[in-house]
Structures are given as C-alpha cells and as structure tokens.
Amino acid sequence: MRSREYRKKELMATMFQSFLKERIARLEREVRLAGPRANGCGSEGSLIPVPDRPFGINFKPACESHDKNYARLSRTREVADQVFLLDLLAICRRTFLNEKFNVAERASYIGCVHLAITYYHAVRLFGKDAYDKAQVQARENNWK
Question: What is the rounded average pLDDT of the residues 33-50?
C-alpha cells in the first residue's frame, strides 16, 4: 500500500502534467492563429547579417512583408520575391521622391533603387531554403 504522501505527490505530478499539456496546446493554437512570424531582413540564423536600415533607408517593413509572403501557401516564391522588390521600390519612392526633388535626392533615389535590386537578387539567389522552411511551417499550421 502506498503512503498518503506518495499518493499526494503522484496526484500533484498528474495535475502538473495535465496543466502543461493544456498550456502547450494553447500556445500551439495561438501560434497557428497568429500566423507567420517576421524577423526583418535576412533569414533567421543567417551567417551574414542583413541590415534592416541600409544607409538609413528603412527596408524592414518590406522584409517583414516578404517573410510573411514566404509563409503563405497561396504564394509562390517568385511572386513573393517580385512583391518584395515592388515594396522596396515603393520605400525608395516614398523616401526620396517628394516635392523637393533635387539633384542630391535624385542620386539618393538612384542609389536606393540599386540597393533594392541588390536585396531582390539576394533573395532570388539565397532565399530558397527560407522559402521551403516557411512553407513547411505554413502547412503544419494551416496558414493560407
């Protein structure tokens, strides 16, 4: 016959296991409902850091949108990358093309466009693994 203290500990362990299972299930449900996670520019765990704000130009919103597009089952990699380029170019336009458009701003705009194209080529050349991982996550979590 087991002691009363032993049964009490066993009951506590069972209750704790039940609590953990419920908590894990709730967290998994929250992840599925929250949708894909964005981490800014560059892929998670990359050996080479990619700046979110190269030369002070805030590319982070385009990078985060790109991360989320990679994790959409309805988006091909090519379309996600093309949307990324359009988003980057829109940031260049908003940042440098305004009513005070002058020679210095024109040079900055052209530099920004070249930088946007460089970021685009980088995801075309090196983004396949990130896309594949995001698609696996999307299937596991049923993200549309």
Answer: 81
**What are the C-alpha distances in Å from 141 to residues 41, 44, 56, 133, 137?**
23, 19, 35, 12, 6
**Percent of the chain whose predicted confidence (pLDDT) is above 90:** 52
What are the angstrom distances between the C-alpha of 134 and each of 77, 78, 86, 89, 131? 10, 14, 21, 24, 5
**Residues 72-120 pLDDT 10s:** 998 999 999 999 999 999 999 999 887 666 777 788 999 999 999 999 9
**Which tokens is 15 given?**
């209750």
Pairs from 87-92 (Cβ < 8 Å, separation ≥ 24): 87/61, 87/62, 88/59, 88/62, 88/115, 88/116, 88/119, 88/120, 89/113, 89/116, 90/62, 91/57, 91/58, 91/59, 91/61, 91/62, 91/116, 92/57, 92/116
Cα–Cα dist 116/78, whole Å: 16
